[in-house]
Design brief:
- With 709 residues, this protein is an alpha+beta fold.
- The chain contains 25 helices and 25 strands.
- The strands form eight sheets. It has an eight-stranded mixed sheet, with helices on both faces.
- Helix 8 runs parallel beside helix 9 (245-254), helix 11 (314-320) runs parallel beside helix 12 (338-344) and helix 12 packs across helix 15 (383-401).
């Protein structure tokens, strides 16, 4: 064996194997015994290691020198460089070479150093020719945990950090889970979950948990709680479980009203979900084949709830089974899962999806939005609502392909995500009605006025006529762009939002309550001071999705009977007769008050401005999309008119001139008496002094007199 090893070292072959047990023995033993131990144990493989480490991974610099000492010649080669790069030399020169070229640029991990390797174990690009480029491009690092070879030192450090974040912390080639001592326990809404230290870094951990999405989880919980009040029990699916925090909250608070299924395709995530279920004293139902081996945690009544945990692709489980409530929260866009989500979702069920690809939805990467959603968008003042309507349009088309229509119950676009909650209506007629609400938007790039394109397939000769503004006539070139296709219908359902607010109050979800109040006001297009919990009318008459839903004011009997087609047909017929009584939809889009403020003028406070618009006869409300946004049915011209009317000059000297008068409102009425006085005085001056001197004096004093008038 010793002869074979010496030949391999001479040829710098990578098959040389130095196990960890040998290195530890070398540190403790005498120097004269180390070469003998190395010769006898160099081909022994420890039972703890499936594969041995590369020769470039050592604990000390002396260990690299010992690899060169295996050659008995006076001149010794570098064990990590080929013969053509570094020729054999004396010991002092070899020591300097190993220290400066290999050891100083190494990457340290758990006492080991991953030195840079110049051997030909990494393939070189075929377009590089010559020995000089070959030796230069062949430099790389060998990972101590896996078999990867990485060129850059910074990339190697990041590669090792990703192993640590995934729990692969032992310096071996095997993939091991992190010990339980490295877990962190996070508590949210009375639910405990175990997460890894890097739980907030997506795509780098199996237990992704974002604390900033707490509001998103609370809104989804309220929507599920409202659905659970309509029919019991309901089967709900969290298609991307990660830590399982969302499904655990559903099962822990709603109890027997829901049958929760948590799915994830990652094996480590599924294992963590099971552990989190036991941490919260929940039963775990693995799958049909493993029902006999179900594990139970804890005792008492708390174990009456069972959570089913599955490990498969989200598209697969949604194709195989039917659910009443489906939530999609992948990393990025959800468009890849919409077809399978609407395939088997039950009638009058709910599909909610959270999209975190805000770079494309918020028009920072417009080509990505066109690729994922088939939608052309630009950055506008109402870009967040534009993102919500883009997602809903994709949802509508996916539902229509399955002969299903939708009604939007909730659409929220905040800093980190876009949340859309829709109710599914089965049948070709609802599908056609929903598809007709997907239209194009005409957007003026000068004044940012916007209007949805009219229905119909006929090409208009001048589409600029649909815009309320006249920028196309006063500005050169093309002034408007065509955006879409977008959802043109309502973004909120008032009755559903009110019941969500009641559920948020009942379960103590403090963060969701202010947002839900804003959404109710936005859905009704009213200000917050007119907000009431029970709504302006009788809540028993609120219509959702063509059927009547039980509300808190009902006398205990639900008008909605599920599973009976005749009852649903009767309810739909009654709803069609009373649709005229249904409240009008909120106006689409909003205006930013700062965007349209007048230079050199102090605009009024936002709440006062809302009152001014309301007094002018327009519907008005604030919007959650923009803290300084105003949702109103007033055209942009009237919006600017009211804003200018109640704005005050910025400078003190200009304030002495009085309030600002608009050309179209006040000065038009004052021109008539002023013109009459001018004619009378001109006639008198013409009679008294025909020389024109007095007329010249009047002309000089005319601006002062007009200002006084």
């Amino acid at each position: 064996d010793g002869v074979v090893v010496s030949e391999k070292v001479k040829s710098n072959n990578l098959d040389v194997k130095i196990p960890e047990s040998e290195l530890e023995a070398e540190e403790k033993g005498a120097e004269e015994e180390r070469p003998r131990e190395s010769d006898s144990n160099i081909l022994d493989v420890s039972s703890d290691y499936p594969r041995d480490k590369h020769i470039s991974i050592q604990r000390h610099l002396a260990d690299l020198e010992k690899l060169a000492d295996l050659r008995e010649d006076e001149k010794k080669p570098c064990p990590l460089c080929p013969e053509e790069k570094f020729k054999a030399c004396y010991s002092h020169k070899l020591h300097r070479h190993l220290q400066n070229l290999h050891w100083k640029v190494s990457v340290e991990f758990e006492g080991y150093r991953m030195c840079i390797c110049h051997l030909s174990c990494r393939p070189v690009k075929p377009n590089l020719v010559g020995d000089q480029t070959l030796s230069k491009m062949g430099a790389h690092y060998h990972c101590i945990i896996c078999s990867a070879t990485i060129v850059r030192r910074t990339d190697m450090i990041g590669h090792i950090n990703r192993h640590v974040n995934k729990g692969e912390t032992e310096s071996r080639f095997t993939t091991v889970r992190a010990p339980k001592s490295s877990y962190e326990v996070v508590k949210e809404s009375a639910t405990d979950v175990q997460v890894l230290p890097n739980h907030s870094t997506p795509q780098k951990t199996d237990s992704y948990f974002n604390p900033k999405m707490k509001l998103n989880r609370q809104l989804i919980f309220c929507a599920l709680a409202v659905l659970a009040g309509e029919r019991k029990p309901i089967e709900c699916l969290d298609a991307f479980g990660a830590t399982g925090i969302m499904g655990l909250q559903w099962a822990k608070h709603l109890r027997s009203s829901v049958k929760v299924t948590i799915n994830d395709c990652n094996e480590n995530s599924v294992t963590m979900i099971k552990e989190n279920c036991h941490l919260n004293k929940m039963k775990v139902k693995l799958n049909i084949k493993e029902e006999d081996n179900d594990e139970t945690g804890g005792d008492g009544e708390e174990n009456s709830d069972t959570i089913e945990v599955t490990q498969m692709d989200a598209n697969v489980i949604m194709h195989l089974r039917s659910f009443d409530f489906i939530h999609l929260d992948p990393f990025g866009t959800s468009v890849n899962y919409l077809d399978s989500a609407f395939r088997n979702v039950r009638n009058l069920g709910i599909v909610s999806l959270t999209s975190t690809d805000i770079s494309s939805l918020y028009a920072k990467a417009q080509h990505v939005a066109l690729r994922h959603y088939g939608c052309n968008i630009v950055r506008t003042e109402y870009y967040k609502e534009l993102a919500a309507r883009t997602v809903i349009a994709a949802v509508t088309r996916a539902a229509a392909r399955c002969n299903k229509g939708i009604e939007v119950l909730l659409a929220v676009a905040l800093e980190h995500f876009v949340l859309v909650v829709v109710r599914v209506l089965r049948g070709p007629t609802p599908a056609d009605d929903s598809a007709k609400k997907v239209r194009y938007l005409i957007h003026c790039q000068w004044c940012e006025e916007r209007v949805f394109q009219k229905e119909g397939n006929m090409v208009e000769e001048n589409p600029y006529q649909q815009l309320p503004c006249d920028c196309h006539g006063s500005m050169p070139g093309k002034t408007a762009v065509l955006l879409g296709p977008l959802w043109s219908g309502a973004l909120f359902n008032t009755g559903f939002l009110r019941r969500m607010l009641l559920e948020a109050v009942q379960y103590g979800l403090d963060e969701a309550q202010p947002l839900l109040k804003t959404l109710v006001c936005e859905a009704e297009c009213t200000t917050l001071k007119h907000f009431s919990t029970h709504g302006p009318g009788d809540e028993n008459k609120q219509e959702e999705c063509g059927v009547y839903i039980k509300t808190p004011n009902t006398s205990g009997e639900s008008y909605l009977v599920h599973g009976k087609r005749k009852s649903e047909e009767v309810l739909r017929g009654t709803a069609k007769r009373q649709r005229a009584e249904h409240s009008a939809e909120h106006p689409p889009f909003y205006y930013n008050i700062h965007r349209h403020s007048i230079k050199g003028m102090n605009m009024p406070k936002l709440n006062k401005f809302l009152n001014y618009l309301s007094e002018a006869g327009y519907r008005v409300s604030r919007t959650h999309f923009d803290p300084m946004g105003v949702r109103t049915n007033a055209p942009l011209v009237q919006f600017k008119t009211v804003l200018m009317k109640y704005s005050t000059p910025t400078y003190v000297g200009a304030q002495a001139e009085g309030p600002v008068h608009l050309p179209g409102e006040i000065q038009v009425g004052e021109e008539v008496p002023a013109a009459a006085e001018i004619k009378v005085e001109e006639a008198k001056l013409a009679e008294d002094d025909k020389s024109g001197v007095a007329a010249a004096a009047f002309t000089q004093s005319y601006p002062t007199r007009c200002a006084a008038d």
